[in-house]
Amino acid sequence: MGDALRVALAGLGTVGGGVIRLLDANRDLITRRAGRPIEIVAVSARDRTKDRGVDLSRFEWVDDTAALASHPDADVVVELIGGSDGPALTLARTALGARRGFVTANKAMLAHHGLELAQKAEESNAALKFEAAVAGGIPVIKGLREGAAANAIARVYGILNGTCNFILSKMEAEGRDFAEVLAEAQALGYAEADPSFDIDGVDAAHKLSILAAIAFGTQPAFADVAIGGVRHVLAADIAQAASLGYRVRLVGVAEEGANGLFQRVHPHLVPLDHPLAHVTGSTNAVVAEGNFVGRLLFQGAGAGDGPTASAVVADLIDIARGEYGASFAMPAHELTAAAKADSGERRGRAYLRFTVQDKVGVLAEIAAAMRDAGVSIESLIQRGEAADGGVMIAIVTHEGPERAVAQALERLRGSQSLVGQPLLMHILG
Ligand code: NAP
Ligand code: HSE
């Protein structure tokens, strides 16, 4: 049995508390698997007096979180604070600079600074591991980095935000309001400190940019992700989608093609015969299409203390075993800066929902905008019920260029017939 891997733990909230509980519960098994014990030696958070439901008296408490980076007894720093910059980034830079291993669940920081941190880790010959940053407990980073490493990946896509999936599936099952269900997701510990990151698609975009970098060997390019969230999806949209044979899911898609790297997070209509349509609650699922392995589907708990701690501790076990390589599956200098693909060139079908005034000529105005932009309508449904003081019109388009749909919406911008903004959802092909 080797010497213990000594851990300094920053952040004792949902995930940090989960890590302590998991190491306590599975100590013997983990020691046998890692070939050595994994021991927390020091911890830090903001409030020393807070009751966290775990015994912290056995660990050294460090008031200055940044000091964990150079703690004399620590081999590895685990960062579970969050935030793209601030104390998390300071800790990452200083820990890696001090040649300490670094484990994090912080997708925001990796999306913004992943390349710099990977370079720093390589310069220091230190481990940088972040399995928990994408899709919670699902070993999708390991799956792509290691299991699928021999493949060229054509496309990676999936449900990457547990909070949104929880909200959409609750809205669907119970016909409840968005705000009420969000409060429930927050109470369960799924939501980010700023829940707008979840519901506006930013958190899923952080994760997508990390997955894309690993899948395609490109530098993380969060700024190139087109982002839309679920805030404006109505229960009526979900019901309409169901009547057409679809479920509404927030899906992140990354694809590499001749025009560059395409990355988008947006609510989609997912056909009922697609596995993503059956992913409910805070579950996440990622599909990767490899040129030799074919379609891989990774599915499991995407958020919460237990699943996320499971991924954090798996990284620690890898480090304890001495099994870690390049953070993004290849050395940082090999990652290319991909051009951003033009979404207008993409072809697909779309769902468009308008809330309109119930008056003569409105339908003709919308149909004319579609015709003038070259959008072919597959079906159009007008519902008599009032929504936002208007009438709901739902359109499903035939397959065509996305540019045409954008042009049709542009033609309708500012129309006096519309009540509120139209909603566009792509149909997962
Ligand atoms: P959390 O419950 O809000 O916990 C954050 C912890 O960080 C708290 O212990 C807090 O201290 C501490 N903290 C905050 N600001 C600090 C500062 N300036 N200096 C020192 N400590 C500070 O967050 P969480 O849900 O555990 O998430 C942690 C990380 O895991 C985030 O990057 C998140 O995106 C990621 N993640 C979370 C989940 C999930 O399901 N929750 C899943 C995957 C990834 P106090 O407790 O004293 O206030
Ligand atoms: N807020 C995130 C989610 C936590 O809801 O998926 C997991 O990354």
Automatic annotation (TrEMBL):
Keywords recorded for this protein, A-Z: Amino-acid biosynthesis, Methionine biosynthesis, NADP, Oxidoreductase, Threonine biosynthesis
EC number(s) reported in the record: 1.1.1.3
One Pfam family recorded for the sequence: Homoserine_dh
Domain ACT, first and last residues per copy: 351-426
Enzyme superclass (EC): oxidoreductase
CDD domains per record: ACT_HSDH-Hom (cd04881)
Residues holding NADPH: K107
InterPro entries reported in the protein's UniProt record: ACT-like_dom_sf (IPR045865), ACT_dom (IPR002912), Asp/hSer_DH_NAD-bd (IPR005106), HDH (IPR016204), HDH_cat (IPR001342), HDH_CS (IPR019811), NAD(P)-bd_dom_sf (IPR036291)
GO biological process, one term: methionine biosynthetic process
Similarity comment: Belongs to the homoserine dehydrogenase family.
Protein name listed in UniProt: Homoserine dehydrogenase
Phylogenetic lineage: Bacteria, Pseudomonadati, Pseudomonadota, Alphaproteobacteria, Sphingomonadales
Gene behind this protein: thrA
